[in-house]
Amino acid sequence: MGGRLDRSEIIFKIISYTLLTIFALFCLYPFIYTISAAISSQDAVDAGKVVIFPIGLQFDAFKYVFEDRSFWLAYTSTLFVTLWGTVWSMFISIFGGYALSKKRIPFNKGLNFFLVFTMWFSAGMIPTLINYQQTRDIFQNIGIVDQKWVVVIAMGLAAYNIILLRNAFSGVPKEIEEAATVDGANEFQIATKVFIPMSKASIATVALFYGISRWNGYFWAKQIMVGEDQIPPLQVFIRNTLDKVLGGEETHSYDGFSVSSLFYAMIVCAVVPIIIIYPFIQKYFAAGVNLGGVKE
Amino acid sequence: MEKKIDERVVDEIERNHWKTVGKRILKDWRVYVMAIPLIFFFICWRYLPMSGLLIAFKSYDGKDVIGSPWNGFAGFKELMTGSYATTENSFWKAFRNTFTLSFYSMIFGFPMPIILALLFSEIKNETYRSVLQVLSYLPKFVSLVVITTLVNLMCSNGSETMHTSGGPITVLLETIHMIPKGTKLMYQSEYFRPIYQISGIWETAGYGSIVYFAAILSISPTSYEAARMDGASKWAQIKYVTFPGIASTLTIMLILEIGHLLTVGYEKVMLLYSQETYETADVISTFVMRTGGVGDTGSNTGTIGKTIASAADLFNSLIAMLLVIGSNTIARRVSSTSLY
User: Fold this and answer.
1) Which position has the higher pLDDT, A156 or B1?
2) Domain map of chain B by residue range?
3) pLDDT digit string (tens) for A41-96?
4) 3-state DSSP call for residue B337?
5) Nearest CB neighbour to B132, from listed A24, A123, A216
6) Into which CATH architecture does domain B74-335 fall?
7) Which end of chain B has a smaller Cβ tally under 10 Å, C or N?
8) How close B281 comes to chain A (CA, Å)?
9) Among candidates B265, B260, B264, B230, which has minimal Cα distance to B340?
10) Across the interface, do A99 and B34 touch by the CB < 8 Å criterion?
């Protein structure tokens, strides 16, 4: 890059820096506001005085959330679903993606179509709900009364993620596979000792996609986990609490903090795990998105 | 005589073909074993539910899908021309709203990531750029429940009885006189679309820029050098170097976007809308939910509701499938790239 910048280039640079800084702040602002409003005094929050920084500090909202047993039960529910859901989805996706990547096996095309068709056409909401309800009943009959397992086992698999893994496995050089075959390794060994280690970045990306979508999962968990003795995940808990307040069912006021602060405090607790792992996952984003395009 | 020999040869070839196929399957039996969990999952929870679509053609008794008596196209008729087409919150309104929401998402949401990527590529200080990028991707990873709770709180209206002045966005808009005092942002249908679109941009624009940014990075710097030698201003460089460089990515993304015209994220609408905003917010999926008695907005309308809802769902799914397959075929033709 040599030469002086043209005037239009300087202008464009200035515009870029300015607009992007504004946009980044626009993206960040709700989070900052959330934290500030969670620890501001009731008067400040209710009067709409909080703009950026907290006004009239209080930590009672957080204290209330920390001492709320049902909140933490929902939290452990989410941890459970996230952990086992990711493990189960990854187990299916890795081995399924591996089989899909083997073009040499008979019916490979059919198997791929079997997967891709579900991306084009889905059964729709009512049939899916009925199916999940039946699944729940079957689980109950074989003695699995904890409906979290229905959420873990029957939901959450994404055909798109499986295709990402299939493409990653297709990218492993043939020579390496052949060398392993010559050494007498069987297919299971080749998959676990050659292909999986060589596709670490893609596997990590997909695991993170699954983990985050499990952590954020709401809709079907809400529809399925309806039993009295069930503890639905955190997202369902937050929304149910909000519905109660919006619907005016709960007009109970809290001592020393605004009811909004209570939600802001819950949101901070719900988002913190994602913020913590965020720095580690952001390097995979580009890889994940670029894998999406299939060159044929 | 000759014909018989031919037939025998064909038979022999057929048999050999299947023999070799069998052999190849046996040789790679472990690969098939690895595919079993996937096949099991997709049959149980993706394909089996499809049989439930028969509800659309049956008078469903609420228990047994297969055993219910057939009803033909009565459900569709009722849905499209009967009482469900003429009520205030009709199927056709939901259908129009679905298209309108998607269409506006395309007009406002589609160019944003491109503009962002263009601007990002201009920032040569890498540390600063990655900080900006990482911040702009962040909302994508926050759950919809959290986002919509934030929207609900920040746009909440003030209340005299509770002595509150409303969320910060309401307060801000009132102060700059963009909305009259006492406006209920979340409960007036004219505000639903702006709220939906702006929160959508907040949520996805940054993350969406990744793919365009990668495309811009892959343009050779020498092209820009050459343009500059010729005295091209920045605008000319963007017009003659950058845009042609990302044209194929842009085309594909646009086509795929069109393919998803009918798949509005129902979860977000469901979490944001209320009875007061049905006028602009009710989309096909929320219509299905409500009619079929699903979810917290569902009023259980009994088994006839399930038939109507399934009919609406099937109609929607079929058109969506045509759009997706069509757009994919076009994308493949245009650039030999397709999503699937």
Assistant:
1) A156
2) 2-57, 74-335
3) 988 888 888 888 999 899 999 999 999 999 999 999 999 999 999 999 999 999 99
4) strand
5) A24
6) Orthogonal Bundle (1.10)
7) N
8) 18
9) B260
10) yes
Interchain pair B313, A154: CB under 8 A: no
Specify the pLDDT at position B298: 45
Contact B141/A278 with Cβ under 8 angstroms? Answer: yes
Question: Which token pair is B194?
Answer: 């702006």
In this model, does residue B236 exceed pLDDT 60? yes
Chain B residues in contact with A260 by the CB 8 A cut-off are 153, 156, 167
The token pair at A184 is 């007498």
Instruction: Report which listed range, A128-142, B54-68, B155-169, is most confident.
Output: A128-142
What average pLDDT does the structure give for chain B? 85
8 Å CB contact of B338 and A28: no
d(CA B169, CA B153): 9
Residues in chain B closer than 8 A to A296 (CB atoms):
332, 336-338
* pLDDT mean across residues, chain A: 88
Q: What is the mean pLDDT of residues A181-197?
A: 90
pLDDT at position B301 is 57
Domains and CATH numbers, chain A: 7-60 (no CATH), 64-292 (1.10.3720.10)
CA distance B238 to B201: 23
For chain A, the three-class secondary structure string (H helix, E strand, C coil) is CCCCCCHHHHHHHHHHHHHHHHHHHHHHHHHHHHHHHHCCCHHHHHCCCCCCCCCCCCCHHHHHHHHCHHHHHHHHHHHHHHHHHHHHHHHHHHHHHHHHHCCCCCCHHHHHHHHHHHHHCCCCHHHHHHHHHHHHHHHHHCCCCCCHHHHHHHCCCCHHHHHHHHHHHHCCCHHHHHHHHHCCCCHHHHHHHHHHHHCHHHHHHHHHHHHHHHHHCCHHHHHHCCCCCCCCCHHHHHHHHHHHHHCCCCCCCCCCCCHHHHHHHHHHHHHHHHHHHHHHHHHHHHHHHHHHCEEC
Q: Considering CB atoms only, which of A33, A123, A235 is closest to B49?
A: A123
A51 at B interface, C-beta within 8 A:
yes
Q: How far apart are CA B35 and CA B25, in angstroms?
A: 13
Residue B1 has pLDDT above 70, yes or no: no
Interchain pair B225, A51: CB under 8 A: no
